[in-house]
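In this section we walk through a basic example: taking a raw amino acid sequence and producing a predicted 3D structure, encoded as discrete structure tokens. The instruction is simple. Fold the sequence below.
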Amino acid sequence: MIETASDRKAQYPWWAGNARLTNLSGTFLTAHIAHAAIVAFSIGALILLEINRYSPDRPMSEQGLFLLPRLATQGWSQVSDGQVTDTYPFFAFGVVLLVSAAVFTAGTLFHRSQVPASLEESKNPLARQYHFSWDDPKKLSFILGNHLIFLGIGALLLVAKAMFFGGLYDANIGQVRVVTEPTLSPGIIIDRIGHLFDVNNLEDVVGGHIYVGALLIVAGIWHMISEPWDWVKRRFLFSGNAILSYSLFSLALTGFAGSYFCGFNTLAYPVEFYGAPLSLKSSLLPHYFCLLYTS
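The resulting token sequence is shown next.
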């Protein structure tokens, strides 16, 4: 729950969530860092737990694993006959995340004790740039631009992993390989937009991430130096609850897209790691109930 309040002294109960941080941009940033610490610790700990449970004598898809299949798909360990041959890179990955969680925790404590509750009151001019209010379209556009740039960097990091740092797992050949010639043809990439879910080669996957990463960074810069057009201001609500609603809608959209990829695309979710794909029994949606009642 997020509310816009003009009274900075308004009191909210603990269960009101981010409403307690209205007009407290510094504390809101601190909450973000704390959330990053929780996420890093949770994922790192779960990776180590899954390593302890993993058995190379059984298919990974039958072991109830959640994160190791994703790490294997990203090529963080060599794979032979559909089985990970060395889990040490996964262990290192988990430890790095736990150390990162400690760093984020230290950052949380630093921001909580040293940074003003409102960045507007900070002595650092760079920090003051990130003070915002929920009903300020220009400042929200600036914050959105920062988020888009980070998303673009994330997409390009996957490209770097595929091309320069060990490669990705290719389900077509059952091995980890480096992608040397990603698809850069605009015609092929644009054509893929109409049938994203049946992508069947790593070249298209990596090429698509190059385009997405570049577009996100360009869009992020544009949002940082501009503000919404007048017709956008007239048609969209700019408030805490509205921003929360837009964010939840975006998460739902990505969730539906991810579920479709997970259910049917055996390149992004190889059979060796995730099991057989679902059977498509609807022209629009996967028939999940079939899986529930037959498993």
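Looking at the output, two observations stand out. Residues 134-251 form one domain. The beta strands are 79-80, 83-84, 168-170, 175-177. In the next section we compare this with other chains.
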